[in-house]
Design goal:
This protein has a domain of 225 residues. 58% of the residues lie in helices and 7% in strands.
Amino acid sequence: MNSRSVLLIIILSVFIGRINTQAQKVSTNNRLYNEAFDHLAGMLSGEIEISLKDAVYQVENAYLDDNLSYDSFNLSIEYYTNIARLFLEKSELDYMGDDKENIRKNGAIFTVMTAKENIYLKDDYYLMPDPFLYDFDDFWGERDWTNMFVSKLLNTHSGNCHSLPLLYKILAEELEAKAYLSFAPNHTYIKVRSQNPEIGWYNTELTSATFPIDAWIKSSGYVHLDAIKNGIYMDTLSKSQEIVMCMIDLAKGYERHFKKPDDLDFLVQCADTALAYYPNYVNAMLLKAETLKKKFEAIMDKEGATYASQVLSIDENKTLFEQMETLYAKIFRMGYRTMPKEMYAEWLSDLNKHADKYTNKALNID
């Protein structure tokens, strides 16, 4: 065997090794995502106890290739939970109502997440952790999907309108406090119910550490009345709906790993499961519609078609196209509107610039 043949064998061996390594990585990722899907689906079906903390872990660990330590993740949550408990032991609240303990718990979570200075309680100073702040850089995770993660927020104290309210809700779950996730255009925030009639429902905005009135949410210009009526915006999520939200997060993370048309069935599976438990969840509808669109475009590319009408003579293609169109039409009728990124950033900064205008004046609790 000459040196040229030996060199060719070495090159082929390296090439085949790379293919096998890549195939092994894809197989591992598929397993992680399938396991995470099964876990979330088990929560939704009642086979597994619902835990937002565990659901978030499953989603983020799948994307991070099983490199997120559950023990470390859990210890971080436990650390902030214990600080909130200490705050509850030492603090007082000038509030009258049977739900005082719940209001105190939510106040403790808010303080632990947002306090910028140490707190003086009952003759003692308490060292507070660095506050969790909003990061205006890549706030939709377009460049780096991990910017959406609670684990990233815990490590850097920098997050967005996805990770910040999720961490708040996880801490509320740990403290057995009643608080609810709610949606605005491209945004998630916290709602809490006070039995004090002068307060009622109030909003907690973690991106600016404020309590804005509903008028601020409506001021975005993208909250259609139909969207409120249909529960797209400004409604509270149940525990199962929170898991549905995680299911769509799982699918979005999967998109970043697998972009080929053959991998799109998992996205449809996630969307269909989500819609079975939360029929009006517009993000699940959008995911399914966009995935069906990609499937249809793949068919057009394969057939060399320029127009959709060129492939609609096949019943399967026609059914796919009609499902996609029906979903888009329903999303629009429900009142959903896309909010441009620049307008979203401006809307968030408007709350900081005009805090007096939008702050809930009823929340003057010390």
